[in-house]
Design brief:
By secondary structure, the protein is mainly alpha-helical. The chain contains 18 helices and six strands. Strand 1 and strand 2 form a beta hairpin. Helix 9 crosses helix 18. The longest helix is centred in the middle third of the chain and has 26 residues. It is globular. About 40% of the residues are buried. Bound molecules: acetyl coenzyme *A (ACO). Acetyl coenzyme *A binds next to helix 17.
Length: about 425
């Protein structure tokens, strides 16, 4: 199959690539060479495939999300986060012995060099945990300096295990620093998710018993966030890694990309928005009008998505989970009622319907995090913890696929050549 492009009276032919779910892409890699300089322009990469990938399939029109062929609904209902991590990174669900070995290897690497505590000490208590976690992830390189030989299976495996082991410790430390708790290494006798909870919440002078309702809710949330193909942070991880910067440096960059309120930072922004509406008397109609007013920068946070133009399948699962978790924990949260009210109004409103704006994964996740006792400024860190296996899988695929360095082009719109003017003459 070929695609033809006509430019300046001449025709050029390009091969068309077909994906395993019958998606087509025009391969324009020879466009510049064939046409003597023509490039494509695609702001925000809305129509550009940056790679071929076998990890995650997403159909935004039909609200489908699958990891390695398994539906998100199936995995969220049945799998553990660690199984999903293994699946994303290595391509298959692990056998019992593979999973046991995977977790034993992680536990063996779960200490973080004590010197790292000095770096954490340098941050003010008020520092946003996303900045702290991104910096500490980069700082890990100093303590694990050997560069990863991607031709060595063992080297790749070791780097991946180290990150899966140490990252939750860094996330927990970011929270403990903020809440004035002593730093801790958790408890290897627990499962991965249970240990995350204990590392975050154990008080120095008290035992911590993991609540299975909370552990199960967190397990589900982490699975739902574990990968989402070539989104902003994942593309960042791949592009940084394409320069052969190491795994930790690439992930640290991905964390920074995730931080923004148009991406992972939306979960914090949603709760802040809902709290704001509540404090302002709970008038959802007023905020609906603000969201639609083009003169007003206000957007309904947690609504809309670059690729989902039907519904976000993760949002559907999370909405149900929010109801279940709050009921199970006996928590009543007026903010949940405001969220439901806003959703109902938006789904019936012409502006939102026309633009295909539906609740995304972040609309309800914050409400669950809150009911689990996780502070608002930690929400995006929780997202990063969930997304870690996806970033690792995408980085690994990119390096093993020997992808070239990512380097987009541009259409230059600046000044033509001009001469330097002496400062007195300007
Ligand atoms: N509230 C009000 N209007 C919106 C919203 C919103 N949340 N989202 C999009 N629109 C409007 C835009 O103003 C635009 O209107 P126009 O056609 O009249 O100009 C139209 O819908 C299309 O919006 P774009 O910004 O062009 O869509 P894009 O695909 O570039 O952006 C994005 C997607 C960034 C997610 C956007 O919908 C948004 O800002 N949402 C709120 C932030 C958010 O929830 N982000 C989390 C995304 S999920 C994730 O990253 C994990």
């Amino acid at each position: 199959m070929k695609a033809k492009i006509e430019f300046d009276g001449k025709f050029y032919e390009f091969p068309v690539t077909k994906g395993s779910e019958d998606e087509y892409a025009i391969d324009i890699s020879s466009l510049r060479a064939q046409t003597d300089g023509l490039i494509t322009l695609d702001r925000g990469f809305k129509n550009t495939g940056s790679c071929e990938s076998a990890i995650t399939f997403l159909n935004g029109e039909e609200g489908v999300l699958r990891y390695r062929g398994y539906s998100i609904e199936d995995l969220a209902e049945n799998a553990s986060f660690l199984e999903v991590a293994y699946l994303l990174i290595f391509g298959e669900l692990p056998s019992k012995s593979e999973l046991d070995k995977f977790y034993e290897d992680i536990k063996a690497e779960s200490n973080v060099d004590e010197e790292m505590k000095k770096i954490l000490d340098g941050f003010p208590k008020s520092a946003h945990p996303m900045g702290v976690v991104s910096s500490l992830t980069n700082a890990l390189i100093a303590f694990n300096p050997s560069s990863v030989n991607v031709d060595s299976k063992e080297d790749m495996y070791k780097a991946i295990i180290k990150l899966l082991a140490k990252f939750p410790v860094l996330c927990a430390w970011a929270l403990r620093k903020r809440t004035g708790q002593p730093l801790d290494y958790g408890d290897d006798s627990l499962g991965y998710v249970e240990n995350v909870l204990k590392m975050m919440f154990k008080k120095a002078n008290q035992d911590y018993k993991v609540d299975p309702v909370i552990a199960s809710a967190l397990n589900k949330l982490l699975i739902l966030h574990a990968d989402h193909e070539q989104n902003c942070s994942t593309s960042t991880v791949r592009i940084v890694g394409s320069s052969h910067a190491g795994l930790f440096a690439s992930i640290s960059a991905g964390i920074s990309a995730l931080w923004g309120p148009l991406h992972g930072g939306a979960n914090q922004a949603v709760i802040e928005m809902l709290e704001g509406i509540k404090a302002d008397g709970g008038d959802t109609k007023k905020y609906m009008a603000k969201a639609k007013d083009k003169e007003d920068p206000f957007r309904l946070m947690g609504f809309g998505h670059r690729v989902y133009k039907n519904f976000d399948p993760r949002a559907r699962i999370i909405k149900q989970s929010a109801d279940d978790v709050l009921a199970n924990l006996g928590v009543e949260d007026p903010v949940l009622d405001i969220a439901k009210g806003l959703e109902k109004e938006a789904l019936e409103d012409d502006y939102f319907v026309k633009r295909k704006l539906y609740p995304n994964v972040d609309f309800y996740s914050g409400i669950i995090y809150r009911s689990l006792g996780i502070p608002t400024e930690m929400f995006t860190v929780m997202f990063a913890l969930g997304r870690l296996p996806g970033w690792i899988a995408q980085w690994r695929e990119m390096r093993l696929g020997k992808e070239p360095i990512g380097r987009p082009r541009q259409v230059y719109t600046g000044e033509k050549l001009r001469s330097y003017k002496d400062i007195e003459k300007r």
